[in-house]
Amino acid sequence: MVFEPLSWRLGLAGLVVLGLALLLRKLYPKPYPGIPYNEASAKRLTGDVMEIVPIMKETNELSAAIFAVTTRKLGVPIAQFLFPGVRKPLIVLEDPREIEDILVRRHKEFDKAAIDVEVFGAMFPRATLAQYTTPELRAQKRLWADAMSVDFLRRVAAPNIYKCTLELLELWGLRAAQADRPINVLDDFKNATLDVIWIAMLGEEAGTIRFDIERLKRQLEGDGTALQPPSGAFLKEQVAYICETIVRNFSTLHPNLAQKIETYLPRYRRFRSSVTREMTRCMKKAVERYQHLTEGALESDALDTCAMDLVLRRQILQAKKAGVEPSDPTQDSNMLDEMFVLLVAGHDSTANTLAWFARFMERFPAVQSTLRAELRKAFPGPGLPSVDEILNAADVPYLDGACEEAFRLAGTAKANIRQTLVDTTILGYPVPKGAEIFLNYHIDRTPTPLEEEKRSETSRAAAERHGDGLSGIAGRDLASFNPRRWIVLDKTGKEKFDAYALPSLAMGGGFRGCFGRRMAQMELRIMVVLLILTFEFLELPEEHQSMAAIEGVFREPKHPYARLRILRE
Ligand code: HEM
Ligand SMILES: *[C@@H]1O[C@H](CO)[C@@H](O)[C@H](O)[C@H]1NC(C)=O
Ligand SMILES: *[C@@H]1O[C@H](CO)[C@@H](O)[C@H](O)[C@H]1NC(C)=O
């Protein structure tokens, strides 16, 4: 999630220094036996590290650069990225079926990588993403799980997502009416998804898009008076600080230590206390509501307005059942760490995926028209469909396919790392305990062919159940955005969405898969329906037509623009 796709990102600067230090100590890379690697790199002190420098200069995408110099250069599904001898090689795996198998079915052999856990652990040790899969972590996940259940999301989050989207439509309506200039959609999506996650987690309005609307209206009227910044503005600053710190500190020799040191500095202290202040204010309101309820009343989620409510109520209920005084949640570091990470994780990721969706609509106009036609058929109007209609009423396979394609082709979280818990094998190659595996989550090209016998037993069994979509029509021309690859005909000849048409890796998978998956899917669906029915995404000027990406914490479009035509007022 949030920073994880890059958490293996030992910075280049650090590695160069490391390379020089090693020169003195004559330490060469130490490849694992058997797994393919560049022979020449094994004879170099710097291993593969310097190979990626020129590629990075051109593309700004570190994950892609790693694949380029290993698996792609060697033309194999699995290879090693060699570091100078003090660091073990990174095993690079590109085959989507085996990756899915590792995430979903082989969790006894693989867990989160140490580097993920450590770098987050310095700042948010009690957040789930900074923990290995232990019994405590399982308990913590259980406590939060219902906040992402379909029922809870539909009742509590969906109406707020819908409302925030209508505000975004209003803002874009104003922008589009004003001038025929491309809009930076990523900026606006980031504000909108912040509004969504804030209210979904804390039950309060962040008011970011509302603020942007008012500000723009005043500008249009020539009114120069300043507006009071919305409450969400504060979180934007804090999130930016944390992202910058993590990205910066990954490029040091000791990312973990750098992060730890940061936590003693006044800047971090201020950050921590302002975030805690804001969250405890919200928590206190919720606790006051629940404290006096009976056990029976506490069983029901009818009063919950957000994820935090649900968790606090559960904790009070558990305490009452156990006959003890509920602990003070504002002192509960599990709660505070988890909430902050969710606020961060839940917004930039979704905003980037939406920005890619906007790029795809421009780049694939025929898909855009088909999608709009299908939506008009499903939601004839006259007005926009309600949130219930979008989520419950209509069966629109082309819409399901379009959302799935957006996740797949965006590559927002391009890659992530797992580590082996035991000696094991991948595609028949021996992999020792403690090895780090760099997994490609971005399925945007035909995988390198490989013999079925090399695959794990569980991977072969899964293909027997669901088929191997990648080798069929669904797997053709994977660089193009085509919702139809997710559509099959049922027995009566009717089109239906097939979630198994291809592996889904955009949000990882298995027990350590994305916690916010269902919420992100819901958010995307609501936004896509309302956006496509309200605007046409027109062709962009040539300088903005590129599909180039920048990979920071997430992989984002380098040209996140859209030119909009308003279809309805
Ligand atoms: C388009 C949107 C999103 C994308 C592409 C995305 C992607 C990911 C990925 C790739 C992972 C790592 C999973 C793995 O390696 O198996 C992850 C983990 C995670 N995501 Fe998301 N995510 C998105 C939205 C969200 C939202 C909305 C939330 C919160 C409400 C969220 C919270 C988390 C958390 C807490 C984890 C860590 C889970 C763990 O360590 O067990 N994500 N996400
Ligand atoms: C929305 O995003 C833009 C660009 O990031 C920013 O300049 C603007 O102030 C944001 N609005 C608020 C209320 O933060
Ligand atoms: C860690 O990141 C922060 C914020 O960008 C920076 O001020 C600090 O110097 C970094 N630590 C090290 C050791 O580079």
Automatic annotation (TrEMBL):
Q: Which InterPro entries match?
A: Cyt_P450, Cyt_P450_E_grp-I, Cyt_P450_sf, Cytochrome_P450_monoxygenase
Tell me, what's a Pfam family for it?
p450
Does the record carry Glycosyltransferase as a key word?
A: no
Keywords on record: Heme, Iron, Metal-binding
Q: Which domain of life is it from?
A: Eukaryota
The protein's required cofactors = heme
Q: SUPFAM superfamilies of this UniProt entry?
A: Cytochrome P450 (SSF48264)
Concerning PANTHER family, the annotation shows:
CYTOCHROME P450, P450, PUTATIVE (EUROFUNG)-RELATED
**Family indicated by similarity:** Belongs to the cytochrome P450 family.
**What protein name is recorded for this chain?**
Cytochrome P450
